[in-house]
Amino acid sequence: MAAGVATWLPFARAAAVGWLPLAKKTMPKPPVDKKSRNDEILFVNVSGLRFQTWKNTLDRYPDTLLGSSEKEFFFNEDTQEYFFDRDPEMFRHILNFYRTGKLHYPRQECIQAFDEELAFYGIVPDIIGDCCMEEYRDRKKENQERLAEDTEAEMATDTPLPPHSTSRERLWRAFENPHTSTMALVFYYVTGFFIAVSVIANVVETVPCRPLKGSKKDLPCGEKYSLAFFCMDTACVLIFTFEYLMRLFAAPSRCKFMRSVMSVIDVVAIMPYYIGLVMPENEDVSGAFVTLRVFRVFRIFKFSRHSQGLRILGYTLKSCASELGFLLFSLTMAIIIFATVMFYAEKGTKGTNFTSIPASFWYTIVTMTTLGYGDMVPNTIAGKIFGSICSLSGVLVIALPVPVIVSNFSRIYHQNQRADKMRAQQKVRLARIRLAKKGTTNAFLQYKEEGGFQFRESDSALCLKNRSSFEHQHHHLLHCLEKTTNHEFTDELTFSEMCMTESVGYRTSRSTSISSQQGVTTSCCPRRAKRRAIRLANSTVSVSRGSVQELDTLQVHKTSAGPQSSRSSLNARTEDLKLNCEDRDFTAAIISIPTPPANTPDESLPPSPAIPGILRNSRSSFTHETVKISSL
Amino acid sequence: MGAVVGTLTMQTRQRQPSRDKIDDELEMTMVCHRPEGLEQLEAQTNFTKQELQVLYRGFKNECPSGVVNEETFKHIYAQFFPHGDASTYAHYLFNAFDTGNNGSIKFEDFVMGLSTLLRGTVRDKLEWTFHLYDINKDGFINKEEMTEIVRAIYDMMGKYTYPALKGDVPKQHVDTFFEKMDKNKDGVVTLEEFVLACQEDENMMKSMQLFENVM
Q1: Which residue of A has its CA nearest to B208?
Q2: Contact residues for B4 (Cβ-Cβ < 8 A; gap 6+)
Q3: Which of the residues A1, A9, A11, A397 would you substitute to probe the B interface, choosing the one with the greatest number of B C-beta atoms within 10 Å?
Q4: With contacts defined as CB-CB under 8 Å, which chain B residues touch A27?
């Protein structure tokens, strides 16, 4: 219901008195309105800018934040005002909506910011007044298109392939984005080269060459060097066929691929050759065959895969279909009108070219497009007058839809330029984002290394750098997660190294064949990890992950352990190159000693992909000591 | 070429009526009415100053020109009764408020009507209702007028009612009403008959009190 109607409600209710004499039943009791009816001025403080308004004004729209009891959450008792920590400039428009009942969209504001403010205040954007609705819709659509483009661009080009993509998916990707691999790029350029060669060959073979000895007539080169041209044609067609079959194989949806424009062009480009092969050397049929050769020129359209500009042009023409249609229609109308007029005007003249109305079409077209070949010319005065009107109107009719097409092309072209620029900047942006992410994960790892977990103890707290309470709490949270999953965070470098060495270590451990329970687990090799987990479970050994207990066990093994055979190489590498193996080794060692139960380390990965979780000994300070211990 | 000429002529023809409409609207907004002073209104009606202030602020916000015309009135009423067609009843109601019969309600009319309905005596309210029913303002309510009003009220209900409207319900309603009101059975109801009959109706008297706290 519109706002202002609320003002009239008391009036309508009062007028209900008029129904009383007619009423068959007694009237129901009216709702009791407990709060006082006196209107008061409310103070609304939005980031320091104070607004004042009648309470009734805000009550007009009870399903918004300001009109409902939701605003009580923002009431500040001390200053007796409603405080909102939002944009004061935008609030002006919001408040105007309450006052006038019409929501206006400020043109200089960002559409997303405006939308967010509306969402916060509980106002539906659909009630924007007609004066501003067009602008709002256009900007919103533009913004959405831009966002869709960006996400598309993000996803399309530079995302690394999922690790277990089939060869078919990889092939398709290589075809769609040749920049991804060198092979694809090479293939891309080779096909481009052959398209050019094929087109040039088609062109050159019609050029007249010097005739053979003993003949006077000029021969087109195609017939003189027919074998050479045939070989070249065959080679090109073979490459195109191969490419098409590869694309067909790699396409995720073959039906959709076969219907796409590019695939149709491919087929049309290579069909004439095969038809020519199949067709016999028959004089009657070869006429038709010659016509088929025309289709070879479609090979030039294959360049649109290689050229961005061509694609834009094609897309523009497609999007301007209605304007082009209008142009065609109006031209047709005009041609028919003027052709008729010219025919009847020139009918009397002897030996005239305007033999029929269709014959006059040619004149009309030539005149309207201001070509003016001069092969058909009016002779009568009437004909000349109408001819001049024809040429003048031709200019007008053609000039009308052209600006629309041009503006469309310009918009699409600029969009594309922007998309390319975005993509280039995207790489830099992503790199920066990755760096920032690494920074935060490194912060946590550093925190751990600096003994952050003992911050409860007073002396070690001093050695921690000044960190905000937010960071403390965040790190505590990450630590809780580690404890929950019984995995630890590490960085990418370490993880990849460990993955590599894990395979080595696993093999060597097998060869040394120490206890069967001994094992290396990294979650980068889940299959192997699973096997190990089963083995571990069978042994029903659990490792205590309590900090104090671990310390104890570690210290226990400090003395008893000897040099490790396979692990030492791994351990010696970096201080943080600790595999789960150590814990496993604890496991093995602990078997003999009855230990308090703990939880078996599970192989599950912590959810965040940026921080791959692998089991690792977190106390780097201790790892130094336990490096040499851990072997069993 | 023909298309171009055609579109040109169409445009010129369209421009004419819109220009007239704009002129009309300008005229409307030119006519700005200001009500009498606050004190006078307070004296004439039964509202306090604050109440008048609140009423006027609402009124002025809706109608910056200071007057309500019938179209706006019908539109507003239609919003309150979206189920059916409230235009006929709104028309009668408009006439009841428009005491000056000049086709628009000023703030004074608005406030006077409200004052009668909300703060007036029972007699005042009954008189007002009588004037509402008396469409041609001749001092008598005959069956036709009553039927019109009742039909208008039933129109506001719309099509989908429970129980469904079968037969000529308005007519039956009017007959019942006339049975009750027309004491001397002369086919018309005068103001006195009307007031008397209503005062006899206990339920009605009780219901009258319900609307006092609307403001």
Answers
A1: A17
A2: A393, A396, A397, A400
A3: A11
A4: 207, 210
* Interface contact A21-B114, CB threshold 8 A: no
Q: Please compute the mean of the pLDDT values over residues A240-248 and round it to a whole number.
A: 90
* A602's tokens: 């599970």
Contact assessment for residue B10 and residue B17, using Cβ atoms and an 8 Å cutoff: no
Which residue in this structure is represented by tokens 């097409």?
A: A405
Minimal CA separation from B23 to chain A, in Å: 20
Count CB atoms within 10 A of the CB of residue A572: 12
- Residue A159 CA to residue A148 CA, distance in Å, equals 16
Q: What is the least distance, in Å, from the CA of A47 to any CA of chain B? A: 28
At residue A621, the pLDDT reads 39
Complex prediction ipTM? 0.76
User: For residue B180, what are the contacts with CB-CB under 8 A and spacing of at least 6?
Assistant: B197, B201
Sign of CA dihedral B193, B194, B199, B200: positive
Stretch among A364-368, A542-546, B1-5 having the lowest mean pLDDT: A542-546
Give backbone dihedrals phi and psi of A369, rounded to 5 degrees, phi first: -85, 10
User: Inter-chain contact B128–A18, Cβ cutoff 8 Å?
Assistant: yes
Question: How far is residue B191 from each of residues B91, B92, B183, B198, measured CA to CA in Å?
Answer: 22, 18, 12, 11
- Alpha helix segments (H runs only) across A320-370: 321-345, 357-368
Q: Provide, as residue numbers in chain A, all residues whose Cβ is less than 8 Å from the Cβ of B79.
A: 1-2, 5
Q: Between A10, A26, A54, which is nearest B214 by CB?
A: A10
Positive/negative CA dihedral, B188, B191, B193, B194: positive
| A8–chain B Cβ distance below 8 A for any pair | yes
More confident residue, B25 or A19: A19
B107 contacts B33 by C-beta, under 8 angstroms = yes
Asked whether the beta carbons of residue B215 and residue A14 sit closer than 8 angstroms, the reply is: yes
> Is residue A378 within 8 Å of residue A344, measured between CB atoms?
no
Percent of chain A beyond pLDDT 70?
Answer: 68
B116 contacts B128 by C-beta, under 8 angstroms: yes
Contacts of B175 in chain A (CB under 8 A): none
Q: What pLDDT does A605 receive?
A: 38
- What integer pLDDT is reported at residue A373 of this predicted model? 94
- Which residues from B are below 8 Å from A29, CB to CB? 210
For residue A513 the two structure tokens come to: 């064949």
Distance CA A507, CA A525 (A): 13
Among candidates A529, A496, A627, A490, which has minimal Cα distance to A570?
A627
Among A25, A39, A397, the residue with its CB nearest the CB of B1 is: A397
Task: Tell whether the model's pLDDT for residue A467 goes beyond 90.
Answer: no
Task: Measure in Å the smallest separation between the Cα of A413 and chain B Cα atoms.
Answer: 30
Those residues whose C-beta lies under 8 Å from the C-beta of residue A192, and which sit 6 or more positions away, are A303, A306
pLDDT of residue A510: 47
Tokens of A162: 């999922």
> What is the pTM (predicted TM-score) of this model?
0.49
A522 vs A153 pLDDT, higher one: A153
Under DSSP, the state recorded for A611 is S
Q: Which residue's entry shows tokens 């200089």? A: A108
Residue B99's DSSP bridge partners are none
CA distance B51 to chain A (A): 8
Report the C-alpha gap between B111 and B115 in whole angstroms. Answer: 6
Q: Rounded to whole angstroms, how far apart are CA atoms B88 and B130?
A: 17
Chain B contacts in chain A segment 92-121 (CB below 8 A): 99-101
Lowest mean pLDDT among A8-17, A121-130, A408-417: A8-17
Residue A529's pLDDT is 42
Q: Do B204 and A23 touch (CB under 8 A)?
A: yes
- The distance from CA A540 to its chain's CA centroid, rounded to whole angstroms, is 48
How close A92 gets to chain B, by Cα (Å)?
18
Distance from CA of B114 to the nearest CA of A (A): 7
